[in-house]
Amino acid sequence: MNSTTPGHRKKITIFLFSILLPFFLLLASYKIVLSTAGLTPVQENVFHFLAGKAELSSQFTAAETSHLEDVKVVMNYATDVFYALLLGVTIIITYSRKDKKILSQLFEYGGKVTILSMLIIGGLSALFFEKVFTLFHALFFPQGNWLFAANSIIIQTFPQDFFISISRNTFLLSLVLGIVFILLGHYFKNVHSNRP
User: 138-183, pLDDT tens digit by residue?
Assistant: First the structure.
């Protein structure tokens, strides 16, 4: 006898969606913010290099190039994760599309968890940016080749203000998208409640 009831399956589906959506929206927001940011020619060269579309400028030192090679690996991994999350979110929405009630719950809870997550992560990042920045690099670049002198080309190209701006805009856009999902949840709830 199958102990998994339809109600239990719905709860699992909502839980999974609420876990996947914040990460998906965060990565989507990062991609959007980065694609619309006003980059300098050197910054553009670096991001084209990270995307595998160009060779890195020769002005970077061997140590800086080594670090950017490591960044490229992390960025490729993040892209893979983004598409995996996109697939997961799409499958859940497609699976639930005929049930407007569960669709409204997916969007509402997913949006609320997104907002809560972004407020926590964004708030911690705003209050303790340097510590969060250091923790991020220590986690993803344990080899320790990410520390450079203040007058190095890589630091001049990507000063702390650049990362603060990108992070702030990414979190703000994620919050907006979280609100959009909540509004969509209310929309589908009204569609369900108005159905004869």
Answer: 888 877 778 888 899 999 999 989 998 999 999 999 999 999 999 9
Q: Does 1 map to a domain?
A: no
Token pair of 129, please? 């940016």
DSSP string, 109-130: HHHHHHHHHHHHHHHHHHHSHH
CA distance to 46, 93, 175, 177, 194, per residue, from 29 (Å): 20, 20, 9, 8, 33
Domain that holds residue 94: 6-193
Cα 19 from Cα 111, distance rounded (Å): 10
Cα torsion angle, 51, 39, 118, 188, sign: negative
- Any long-range contacts for 40-46 (C-beta under 8 Å, 24+ apart)? 40/157, 42/157, 43/157, 43/158, 43/162, 46/157, 46/158
Counting every residue, how long is the chain? 196
| Residues contacting residue 42 through CB under 8 Å, at least 6 positions apart | 57, 59, 157
Q: What's the number of domains the chain is made of?
A: 1
The tens digit of pLDDT for each residue in 12-42 reads: 999 999 999 999 999 999 999 999 999 999 9
170: exposed, middle or buried (Cβ count in 10 Å: 0-12, 13-18, 19+):
buried
- For residue 32, being part of any structural domain is answered with yes
Identify the CA nearest to 104 among candidates 10, 7, 9: 10
